[in-house]
Each structure stands twice: as structure tokens, then as C-alpha cells.
Amino acid sequence: MTRNPQLADGQPDERLLSTQVADQLRHAILTGQIPPGSRVRQDELAERFGASRIPVREALRLLESEGLVVLVPNSGAWINKIDRAECIEIYRMRERLEPLALSESVAHLSDADIDRLTVMAREIQEAATVEEYIDRDRKFHLLSYSRAVMPKLLVTVERFWNLTQHYRRLYIATTGGEGRWISDAEHRLMIEAIKRRDSEEAERVIFSHIRRTRIHLQRLG
Q1: Longest dimension (CA), the chain
Q2: Which pLDDT score, from 0 to 100, does residue 7 have?
Q3: Which domains are present in the chain?
Q4: Each residue of 207-216: pLDDT tens digit?
Q5: 63, 65, 197, 201: which could form a disulfide with 193 (CB 3.0–4.6 Å)?
Q6: What is the pTM of this model?
Q7: What is the pLDDT of residues 13-67, one digit of tens each?
Q8: What's the number of CA atoms in the CB half-sphere (13 Å) around residue 148?
Q9: Containing H/E element for 71?
Q10: Which residue has the higher pLDDT, 202 or 177?
């Protein structure tokens, strides 16, 4: 059982506990351990973490705000599941929003950030499994956007990534080595544009990167 965080007086720290519950659930959802559409039972989570239902509810509310969980009054909680049409709609929005996020971020990325992106791109290439690949790819892109001084945009971008996580898994699984090779090449092009502080070129690369994935998903039918 996960250790129950406590305050100095020995009482459970419900704020820390809700964060712990949210972190573990988020990881399980994003890695596919809990598939989309699964029901989340609050009493089972409370028992697992040795907690009351209050921190569990707070954790679920946080994950709902991130697009990972759907809470239905008087019914329960489910892992969010979107259909193909909704996925394509979100990808079309990502094609517009993420180039903006990257463009706004480029000028503020430090040399250390760029060095880290370069290392991360290499680590993506070396990923041995689909799960490693999509986890490293996610971290790479969110770092590239992270210096944009547009917090609401960044929250929206991450929410869209959460909503489409299992479709990225589908994309990698159905494109194989060729799809990964093209994505890796686009990552290198993006880094080169960032190094030159060429925000317009970085925008063009990320737009094409997202659009190519969307077109492939559309063709899957």
C-alpha cells in the first residue's frame, strides 16, 4: 500500500495525499495502464491509499481539469475517452495552437533548454518501446513550448495532449519504423530552427509535424 503522508501531529495530510493520488493515477492513465473509458471507483482508491474519500475526490477533480477524467454527478468517474472525430478536431486545433506556443517560446528558451532538447531528441530516437517513445516525445514537445509567456495557452496545449494520448500510441503502433524516422527528422529540424531563433521556421515544422499525424489518423478510418 502507498504510504499515507502525515502532518507533524500524525494526522493524514490530505492535500499531499490528493497530490499523490493524482500523480499515480495520471501516470497510469498516460501510460495506458488504465484504458480510456474505464470506471474509477473512489472507494477502491480510498482503500488503496488508506485515505478518506475527500483527497480522492480532490485528485479526481484535478485530473478532470486536465482532461483525463470525466466526473458524472450521482454516477461516478471515468477515464476520459474521445472518439476519432473528436480526436481529429483536437488535432486541427493543435495545428494552430502549438505553432503559436512554440513561436512564443523560442526567444525565451535558454541555451541549457536547447541543449536539453537536443539530448531529448536523441533519447526519443533510442526509445526501445512505444511507451518510452511517446513519453519522451511528450516531454520534448512540452519543454519546447514551456517558455511561452502564455499560461492559459500552455494549459490548453497540455490538456489537448492528455485527451489524445492514446491516439498517439495508435499512430506510433501503425506507422512503425518509417513513422518514427520521419518524426525524428522533424525533431532535428525543429531544434535547428530553435538554435537559429527562427520562430517562423519552427512554426512551419511543428505545424507539418502535427498535420502529418492527423492525416494518418484520418486515413485509418
Answers
A1: 59
A2: 40
A3: 14-79 (1.10.10.10), 84-219 (1.20.120.530)
A4: 999 999 999 9
A5: 201
A6: 0.86
A7: 677 888 888 999 999 999 989 999 999 888 888 888 777 888 899 999 999 999 9
A8: 24
A9: strand 69-72
A10: 202
Rounded Cα distance between 55 and 160, Å, is 25
C-alpha cell at 10: 500524525
Positive or negative, the CA dihedral 120, 31, 12, 59 is positive
The packing angle between helices 130-145 and 165-195, to 10°, is: 50
Sheet architecture: strand order including 76-79: 39-40, 76-79, 69-72
Is 6:51 a contact under the CB 8 Å cutoff?
A: no
Long-range contacts (CB closer than 8 Å, 24 or more residues apart) made by 168-172: 168/134, 168/137, 168/138, 168/213, 169/32, 169/130, 169/131, 169/134, 170/217, 170/220, 171/213, 171/216, 171/217, 172/130, 172/133, 172/134
Residues 202/194, Cβ–Cβ less than 8 Å: yes
